[in-house]
Description:
- With about 375 residues, the chain is α+β, with helices and mostly antiparallel strands.
- Helix content is about 25%, strand content about 35%.
- The chain is built from 8 helices and 20 strands.
- It has helices at about 45-50, 95-105, 110-120, 140-150, 170-185, 195-200, 220-225, 230-235, and strands at about 5-15, 20-30, 35, 60-65, 65-70, 80, 155-160, 190-195, 205-210, 215-220, 240-250, 255-260, 260-265, 275-280, 285-290, 300-310, 315-320, 330-335, 350-355, 360-365.
- It has a 6-stranded mixed β-sheet with strand order 6-7-8-3-9-10, with helices on both faces. Strands 13-12-11-14-20 form a 5-stranded antiparallel β-sheet.
- Strand 1 and strand 2 form a beta hairpin.
- The longest helix has 18 residues, at about 170-185.
Amino acid sequence: MSESIISIRNVTKTFGAVRAVNDVSIDIQANEFFALLGPSGCGKTTLLRMIAGFTNPSAGQILIDGQDMVAVPPNKRPVNMVFQSYAVFPHMSVEQNVAYGLQVVGTPAAEISTRVANALERVGLDELRTRMPGQLSGGQRQRVALARALVKQPKVLLLDEPLSALDAKLREQMQFELSQLQQDVGVTFIIVTHDQDEALSMADRIAVMQDGNVDQIAEPGALYEKPANRFVADFIGKVNLFDGEVSGTQAGKLTVETAVLGKVHLTHDGEAQHQVCLAIRPEKIRISKTKPDVEGHITTRGRITDWAYYGDCSHMFVETENATQSGAVRLGVVIQNDTRDAVDALDIGDDVHLFWSPDDMLVLND
């Protein structure tokens, strides 16, 4: 990684009695694609608006390229923002929309023409420069907003839920395009999203936020496979969680008593509280109608109660046979439909065995 382009130091923002952002510190590197991820109300958009200058911190410091932004208005900061609504002017052509910001600050006409042409080429709209916004698709309007932001050559591009208005297929396509665009232009991107797939597929690093706090900052793979706590594990992707009590520790080994799985022996080098949460991702679980010969694996039995077919994979829920009166214990399982008849191998109502390697299980402190 290169040096930090943005340093957020102990930033807090309160609205009356509500603490929207709570003592957050983050360093974002130059040319990094960074994501602020979390549920609605977690403080991610407030933090983005403070970087942009639309909202002032109640405490703390924000530095961009080494300069304290406390007295710098939004239009003087080396950042530009792409809003959720795109805010494309409907009465202007694509070319006019992109040129507008340069015209406002008095950029010479010859320079405007060159920079607009370069920006449109970067986002793949050079052949649509004369079109009006009403003649464009949602994805094309988003590219106009991106070009309009990039044409001003900011050091940092801020994106507030930029894909939320697109349909699922176009959203997936734009995830790849945004990631490629960021690599091509070499500008730091900071995206706010509540969509885990968006963050995982595009960002170099992700900050997961909850109730104004940053719970974990990590690369996508580390965030998914090594979440810092129960919230991160549950928010990033799908996961099965089991409450348990530590009953023994010895030389990197941990024994945990659980209501569903009984006594579980795990390899664990970190700290563990007396009360812990065990987690297993659905795709790590194997399923069989016959009892598997898997010594050392964690096993349980149950019955398939629900099934959803997604083409490349199927998601199912298995109710364990030791479900208690306080509520059925349902485990999510994902199987890959890697053969054409895979979907016919199992069905709702089947009694099955579930098993997985203890090395795939996570030990989480709340």
